[in-house]
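User: Could you walk me through two proteins back to back? I'd like the raw sequence and the structure tokens for each, with a short line separating them so I can tell where one ends and the next begins.

Assistant: Of course. Protein one, sequence then structure:
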Amino acid sequence: MTIRILIADDNQDTKDNLIELFSNEDNLEIIGTATNGKDAVELSRELIPDIVIMDINMPVMNGLEATEKLSIELPQISVIIISVQDEPEYLRKSMLAGAKDYLTKPFNPSELLNTIQKIYEREKRKKTKDTLDMAPLESNTGKIFTFFSTKGGCGKTTLLVNIAIALKKVYPEKNIAIIDSKLQFGDVAMFLNIKNPATIYDMVNDETVDFNFIDKYFKLDDSGIYVLACPEKPQFADEIRPDFLGDVLSASIERFDFVFIDTSPVFREIELQIIDATNGFFFLILTPEVTSVKNAKETLEIIESLGYPKEKIKIILNRSDTKVALTRENIENTLDLKIQASFPSNGEITVPALNKGKPFVISNPESKISKAIFNSLESLLDISENEKRKSEGFMDKIKNILR
């Protein structure tokens, strides 16, 4: 299948380089070029390309304006925005405008070609209604659950770690893993008091990513959870390419039944790769504050613009009992989504658990927040009746744990 491409950039050198690059690929066809956003929109209406490579800064109409017009008028066209700007704010604006990806100049040619192929195939699956359909839990393919928040300090990692361990307690027969994709300042290993773990950075120089490769680098914690830690030093983060992480995720779901991913509070290529791979649920963690809810609303707009199904997005409200906070009804009306689970403040339990590196569902299973975690598992993960029967009494297990 030939992928039809329109190039929109006012820099002739960039256009020439792209034309040369694409002309060497048998499955890519350049059907037109434009020097400004207005022409790009008009040509797209006429030619209906599969993909538009859109520069962000152009005369007459900039790339963001043109992308927004195309996303409304011709949503079947995928836009990849290119820019010299590397700030997360530009990526965020691009996603809100409806772009499917964002690459910074100068980009690696193979990276651009891989991005085009990935987006084209994803959109093709969507058109056949075969994308991101969640299989039953008994499927041989594991499920990826992504945890995201718009800022640090909202308790995202705490909840992720404790939910994963609670699930392991209910399903001891399942293989469960956590991947720390906060590549600069991740702290999952610290939450579990794992000393000197292998990291995703250590994996980079291995030749292949496969089943055995996963077993070599994922550390089995005392809780029964496998953990892939973030790089030891922040400067190593740049060595982790999005396509490499994609390979790790693909291999992970062959090895594990459930993979929980802790993410950074930004939208970059790494985070977009994770969203694209998430075949379970995308959990958005927020607290009952105006700024948290505002940022959550913008996040939802970005996620939906990427084509991720709204029904696979789940809202988790942390510190729900905070005084002088927004009400649950206020938050749900603003986000146009129901809150799937809410957890109380319990600092006298959560802080010591973090300091000791022993999650509270293990150290204090009788605490208010631990009980809330266990009692939320069924609705959070959509555990089927069949799966509960296979687990020899899902709710009975939880009751026994909480005694």
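----
Protein two, same layout:
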Amino acid sequence: MSRLWMITFQIHDWSTSSCTCATYSKLYICKHIVGLAVKLKVFEFLPEAKNVPLGAKRKRGRPALTKKALLIQ
């Protein structure tokens, strides 16, 4: 498996750029093109998108058992 990708970046219209990675072959857009567009300041994310949390890591150890759904007290 190759870890070297060739990106053809179009500065005037970055959405028509191409990449040799597998994701681009399927979706015609990939993180390499978007990342390069952001780095060259051709594209900018909205501030709301930067504030979204990505998720938390799982705690160490065995997961806790599930709670009883229909427990009457």
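The beta strands are 7-8, 18-19.

Let me know if you want the two compared in more detail.
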